[in-house]
Every structure is written in structure tokens, then in C-alpha cells.
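Page 42, continued from yesterday. The earlier attempt failed because a stray header line got pasted into the input along with the sequence. Redoing it now with the clean sequence only.
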Amino acid sequence: MTSNHDLLARSLSSVWHPCTQMKRHETLPLVPIARGEGVWLYDADGKRYLDTVSSWWVNLFGHCNPRINAAITDQLGKLEHVMLAGFTHEPVVQLSERLRGLAPAGLGHCFYGSDGASATEIALKMSAHYWRNTGKPQKCEFLSLKNSYHGETLGALSVTDVALFRDAYGSLIKQNATVPCPDWRDAAAGEDAEAYATRCAESLEAHLRVHHESIAAFIVEPLVQGAAGMAMYHPTYLQRARELCSQYDVHLIADEIAVGMGRTGTMFACEQTSLSPNPSPACGRGVRESAGEGKRTGISPDFLLISKGITGGYLPLSIVMTTDDIYQAFYDDKTSRGFLHSHSYTGNPLACRAALATLDIFEQDGVLNTNRDKAAIFNRIATPLREHAKVKHFRNTGMIWAFEVETPHADFAQRCFSLGLKHELLLRPMGNTVYFMPPYIIDETQFHLLITRTLTIIDELI
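This time it went through. C-alpha cells are written below.
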């Protein structure tokens, strides 16, 4: 068996790792992973790490899940791949039909990509091309929230407002406008999350009133902005955004790449715009425990972007869901009016089977209800962390937790990551923001371990 030392040496000599300053690995070793099981990752020497971030937010039901393994193995014996241009196959048809039944009303057409950034690219192109096909070619600009993140390809970067990702490629990117994010941490003293969301929606309205004739679409991460440090906001903003986009004839793109697939407590975060009963005020400002079943009506965006958890963390896949109105704008005898986007692995059968197995687990195991119960229990377990003197803005939406740590260390994130590994935790802070997005199969014992050891790490760091 390859040792940790051998694997590290070979990786550093041949692999250029993503979002990584490779020079850091002269002093901060890579983490060599040999296998995974449930919520745990194991290195070649047998040391384990609790995957608190679902391996970049994709793993929903644990590593090496036997049901997803079985589905992929079965598909391998039937069809591994066929191009989707001019061909079709059962897994992609089944997945499209099931998603149509799960998604917000009116989203009946699925276009397939490979990852989240490509889903963003597809939606932006589709929106602008729709307006061109309908006689409004001037509507080719886009609008996003301050601190938004929608991917790192050039089109996606044009609606991403994270300086680290944008600045290096600014000369290549089309510049688009941003409007204030309703992140409740930015609210004025005495202003609650809903009031602040309403105030931010007023800024959105002011911008659309002036610029709507040139704007194709407004793209938003519903309820939680991930790369912004898990910025959470009140669902009333989504409701107003839907109303305003309809009023000013602008498409609404809901980027549910990170927050979809049950992560916020409902299958899609858009459902929570009209969800009763309301989140309990006992949770405190910014701590939103998942509500009970209640009636879900929600909003319907013009485009819904799905990726990350859709395959349970197994294979690359993304889907852009859209309406019949948008689909019909491309339905024509002329090729130039068709949607001109493709890639070789569109709708790959193996990835679609993994996605179907993931949806089976949701349905058969009652995952959404179980997650709501878990979130309530885990919030109680997390009380000592929420009450720690150096912890600020503790917050929760569904199966996402985040908080800031008051620290004098500019390199807090790197220190926290390294110390986490020593305590069997895979933590990846963003600045001084620590967050948990664990696989849904995490249990109370494992969550107790996560909280206890995180408290130890904080005390050692400050």
C-alpha cells in the first residue's frame, strides 16, 4: 500500500491543486486520503478525519454509500456513456422527469452540464439568447448580489463578487453591477433580519427601475451565500426579488448549486419564501432552525441551477431547469435560434444513475424530515459553542452552521485547518468564519465530537 509520504511526494511533483498556492505546501502538507466511509475520511496510515464540509459541499449521504455504489455498478454493465446530441437514454429521461416533479412549479425543462460553474454559464447564455430571440438584444447585462459567488469560469466570474477570484482575471471579464446583499450581519442596530432584507430589496428595486431595459437576469444564491462566509438572510428577500423581476421583465436565476438538495431544510431553498410555521424566534437573531412540514408554496425562478449534492458527491453533474416560455423561444427551424451550448459528457448515464440513487435515498429515508429533527438537536448540542466568548454571529439554516471567531491571527484559517487535522476534523474556514456542512448521515455522537473538538481548537488558537 502507498504510504502517506510517498503519495504526498508524488502529488506535489505532478498535481496542480485547485484554489491553492502550491508554495504553501512546502510547510503545510497536503492531506493524503486513501479511503472514505460514512462521515469519515482515512489517510494511508489509518488516521481518520470527520468530513465537516462534505468534501466541498457535495457529499450528502457519506463516502462509499452502498446504495449509490450499487446504482453506478449496475449502470456500468448497461451503458457508460453516449452523446446527448441526437441521442437519449433512460437515466437522463428518468432524472429529468423526477426533477420536474420536485422543483418549483413551471420548471419543466432540464439542460445538462458538468459542474456548478458550467450551470451558471448555461443560464447566463440562455437568458441573454432568449432576449435576443424575442427581439430585445439590448437585454444582455446581468445583476448579482454583493459578495456573490457563482463559479470561476469567465461568464460565472462576471457575476461573482469575490475579489480573490475576480481581480486576477478582471481584464477578461465582462463587468456587471451588484446590489446590496441582505446578509443580516450587516443590519443596523435594532434592525431584524426581515427588516434588513426588505431594505435591501428596496435597493434592488431602485436599480431595476433605472436599468431593467438592459438587464437580462438577476442571479442570486437563495438564503445562504456560501463563499461570502455563509452569509444568511431572510426569505422575504427572495419573495420581493421574484416580484420585482416579474414587474421589470428580468429573469430570476436561483443558484441552488450549494443550497439545493435539502441543504437548507427543504429540497430547494426557494421553497422557504412561503413556509409555515415560521422559524422559531427562540433560536435568536440569525439562528434559523428548520421549520416543520407546513405548507410550501415558495417562488418559481426562471432558471434553477442544480449541482454539487445531486449525485451524492460521486460524479460531476449539473442541471439548469427552466420554463416552457423560455424553451419555446428557442424552438424554431433556424439553428441560430437554438441554444448553442454543449460538452462531451452532457447527461452522462453514470452520473444520472448516481443522481437517481441520491433522490431514492431522499424519498425512501424521509431525509428532509430527519434533517429538521437533527438540526434542532444539533443546535442544542452546539449551545456551548454559540455561547463561547470569542464566537460571534452563530447562525444556522438547515444543515449549515457558521460563526465568526474573534482572533488576533491573520492566518487564522490556516492555523484552524492544521489544528483541526490534529483533532480528527476536516475544517476549511473562510477567513475567521468557521462553518459546518456535514453529510446528512452525521449522528449525535459525531456532532458532539465536532462541537467539543471545535471548542478545544478555538481555545488553543486564541
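Notes: Residues 1-34 form one domain.
Reminder to self: strip header lines before submitting.
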